[in-house]
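ok new one. same drill as before - C-alpha cells go in, u give me an amino acid for every spot. 131 of them this time. try not to just spam alanines like last time pls lmao
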C-alpha cells in the first residue's frame, strides 16, 4: 500500500519555486498587512507555537541534474499525521475568512524525497507533481 501525502496551499504561486505557496507563507502575508483580528492573531500564535514544538523544519536543498539554480524541497504531511493536518485546517479557516482560497493537495508521488520524519517529508517535485 502506497503512502499518501497531503499539502495545504493557497492559489498563489511562489516566484522562486513556481509552486503554490503554503499556509505559513500566506499567514505571513496577513501579518504584513496587519489584517488579523485580535482573536485570530492569538489563535494563529497558538497554532504556530504548536508547530514549532511538534514539527521539525527541514532544511534541505538540492540542485536538480543539469541545473545551476538550487531548488527548495516542498514539505508534505504524511496522511497519518492527523493532529498536524487538523492544525493546518485551523490555519486554513483563518485564511479563508480573509478571502484566501485554500487547496488541499493529495498525492502518492510527491517527488524525490530529501527528508523524512514521522510526520512529514520534504521532496523536490517531479515534473508532473502538482504542488
Amino acid at each position: 500500500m502506497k503512502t499518501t501525502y497531503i499539502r495545504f496551499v493557497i492559489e498563489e504561486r511562489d516566484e522562486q519555486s513556481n509552486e503554490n505557496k503554503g499556509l505559513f507563507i500566506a499567514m505571513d502575508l496577513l501579518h504584513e498587512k496587519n489584517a488579523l483580528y485580535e482573536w485570530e492573531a492569538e489563535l494563529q500564535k497558538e497554532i504556530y507555537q504548536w508547530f514549532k514544538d511538534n514539527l521539525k523544519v527541514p532544511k534541505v536543498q538540492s540542485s536538480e541534474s543539469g541545473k545551476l539554480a538550487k531548488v527548495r524541497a516542498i514539505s508534505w504531511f504524511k496522511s497519518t499525521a492527523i493532529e498536524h493536518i487538523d492544525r493546518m485546517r485551523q490555519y486554513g479557516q483563518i485564511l479563508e475568512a480573509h478571502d484566501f482560497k485554500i487547496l488541499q493537495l493529495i498525492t502518492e508521488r510527491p517527488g524525490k524525497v530529501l527528508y523524512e520524519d514521522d510526520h512529514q517529508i520534504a521532496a523536490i517535485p517531479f515534473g508532473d507533481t502538482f504542488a
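The chain has a mean pLDDT of 89. and btw Strands lie at 5-13, 20-22, 61-63, 70-72, 74-78, 102-107, 112-116, 120-124.
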